[in-house]
């Protein structure tokens, strides 16, 4: 049996566990477990026990494949996630080529920003380097210079919220390998390298949240999470048409459309509202107006986020919509109209062994977790012995002895998604580990080169 990589997407509406087995030629999806999510609202835990049971059920389903799941890469997205940019500077050696250690020093300097009490760094993503005033250096390793500057995107999250999520996962018998922000995972499997290079925004519209990541020059420049999703659309339908939530959801799936221009004015559909004994006919255009109002609001908030990022006008490849709610017909047209940029709806690119149901925008995050997890493992293995003592490679929690890896994943990914980016994970101690055992600081770092 090859090494396993597991991704668990903890969404507001569903938990999806995907097990990937790394074989010599490729990585194969060998187990999948999807279960409705309980105990989650807007990406936040509202009931640890209920959530834990849903996770357990999803994990057990995935384990029916015969594989035991000990640890997993887990998605996170909620309004407590925030992002900021930071610059770190270090003196470069000048007389010798810049090496990994210099990059780590620049990274350390970039991460030395005041983090409010109760928050922790989730990811640090190097965007570009400046060497002796030369801007936009992608990979300074091997170059000569005296002043190395790193521009980094830093994503932070509320420690307590992560703790709650971690607790629910651990109760299901699984260690959290690392948390990965949703749109980073989704972006990894729905964007093309050309889009990422030119400038593009991925918008993952799920049940409870809409997650955004802006990619420019091949890497992540901005991220954001909005606490509205498809669930709010169904809720609006339920309120306005006086329907039970489940019926509103069913009506949305069967008759819903986000674009009023695409619906005939006289089209009707049957429903039985609360308090009515008989089925009544509702104008489909009324339903579409309800949906359009909420969907337009979502895209207006996305637009606000783009403006806030300062990268408006830098996204020629437009917006790529994914997540379950992007399946609503007409989403592309509304995105196009509100955001005034090209739009497309995308599902995850296929991985070997990926069954048809996973080829849906609803599974982009889960499939992306698997891919990112795989790449991070490869880089962990490669770097395990690099710069010991300066940077300790450490997972969020030590994996159970039974789950600890021995094999190295070289060649696991024949074609890394971001071809010129190597991902790797660093864990940098901010405090003595005994003082803060449950929340070791860690950073997920993308570097703009394949660093040996
Ligand atoms: N065919 C469809 N048409 C319209 N909406 C759909 C369709 N399929 C799923 N949805 C909507 O997608 C939403 C769920 O999306 P998804 O599975 O991506 O959410 P999630 O990952 O569980 O939640 P989140 O990421 O917000 O925490 C629901 O609101 C559902 O109504
Ligand atoms: Mg989701």
Please sum up the structure shown.
This protein has two domains: 1-191 and 373-452, no CATH class; 197-345, Nucleotidyltransferase, domain 5, CATH 3.30.420. The chain is built from ten helices and 20 strands. The protein has helices at residues 48-63, 100-111, 159-171, 182-190, 193-198, 230-241, 245-255, 284-309, 331-339, 364-383, and strands spanning 3-10, 14-22, 27-36, 40-41, 44-45, 71-76, 82-91, 119-131, 134-137, 147-158, 175-181, 200-205, 210-216, 219-226, 268-271, 280-283, 319-322, 343-345, 422-426, 443-447.
Protein topology:
Layout: E1 3-10, E2 14-22, E3 27-36, E4 40-41, E5 44-45, H1 48-63, E6 71-76, E7 82-91, H2 100-111, E8 119-131, E9 134-137, E10 147-158, H3 159-171, E11 175-181, H4 182-190, H5 193-198, E12 200-205, E13 210-216, E14 219-226, H6 230-241, H7 245-255, E15 268-271, E16 280-283, H8 284-309, E17 319-322, H9 331-339, E18 343-345, H10 364-383, E19 422-426, E20 443-447
Parallel strand pairs: 1-6, 6-11, 12-17, 17-18
Antiparallel strand pairs: 1-2, 2-3, 4-5, 7-10, 8-9, 8-10, 12-13, 13-14, 15-16, 19-20
The structure holds adenosine-5'-triphosphate and magnesium ion.
């Amino acid at each position: 049996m090859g090494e396993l990589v597991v991704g668990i997407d903890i969404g507001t509406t569903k938990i999806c566990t995907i097990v990937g087995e790394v074989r010599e030629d490729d990585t194969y999806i060998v187990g999948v477990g999807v279960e409705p999510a309980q105990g989650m609202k807007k990406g936040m835990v509202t009931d640890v026990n209920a959530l834990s049971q849903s996770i357990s059920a999803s994990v057990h389903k995935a384990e029916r494949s015969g594989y035991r799941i000990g640890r997993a890469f887990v998605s996170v997205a909620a309004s407590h996630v925030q992002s900021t940019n930071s610059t770190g500077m270090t003196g470069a050696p000048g007389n010798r080529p810049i090496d990994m250690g210099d990059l780590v020093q620049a990274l350390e300097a970039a991460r030395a920003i005041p983090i409010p009490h109760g928050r922790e760094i989730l990811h640090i993503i190097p965007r570009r380097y400046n060497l002796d005033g030369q801007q936009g250096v992608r990979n300074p390793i091997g170059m000569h210079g005296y002043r190395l500057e790193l521009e980094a995107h830093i994503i932070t999250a509320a420690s307590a919220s992560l703790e709650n999520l971690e607790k629910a996962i651990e109760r299901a018998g699984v260690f959290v390998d690392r948390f990965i922000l949703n749109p980073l995972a989704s972006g990894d499997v729905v964007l093309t390298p050309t889009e990422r290079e030119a400038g593009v925004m991925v918008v993952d519209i799920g049940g409870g949240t809409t997650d955004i990541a802006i990619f420019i020059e091949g890497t992540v420049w901005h991220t954001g999470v909005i606490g509205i999703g498809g669930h709010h659309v169904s809720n609006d339908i339920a309120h306005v048409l006086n329907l039970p939530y489940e019926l509103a959801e069913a009506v949305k799936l069967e008759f819903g459309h986000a674009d009023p221009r695409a619906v005939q004015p006289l089209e009707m559909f049957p429903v039985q509202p609360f308090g009515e004994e008989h089925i009544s006919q509702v104008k489909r255009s009324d339903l579409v107006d309800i949906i359009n109002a909420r969907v337009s609001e979502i895209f207006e908030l996305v637009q606000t986020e783009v403006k806030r990022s300062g990268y408006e006008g830098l996204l020629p490849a437009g917006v790529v919509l994914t997540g379950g709610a992007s399946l609503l017909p007409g989403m592309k047209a509304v995105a196009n109209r509100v955001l005034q940029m090209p739009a497309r709806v995308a599902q995850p690119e296929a991985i070997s062994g990926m069954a048809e149901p996973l080829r849906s925008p609803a599974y982009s995050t889960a499939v992306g977790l698997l891919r990112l997890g795989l790449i991070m493992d490869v880089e962990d293995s490669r770097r395990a012995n690099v710069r010991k003592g300066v940077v300790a490679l450490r997972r969020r929690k030590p994996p159970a002895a039974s789950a600890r890896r021995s094999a190295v994943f070289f060649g696991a990914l024949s074609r890394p998604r971001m071809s010129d980016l190597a991902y790797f994970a660093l864990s940098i101690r901010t405090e003595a580990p005994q003082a803060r055992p449950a929340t070791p600081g860690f950073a997920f770092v993308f570097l703009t080169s394949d660093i040996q």
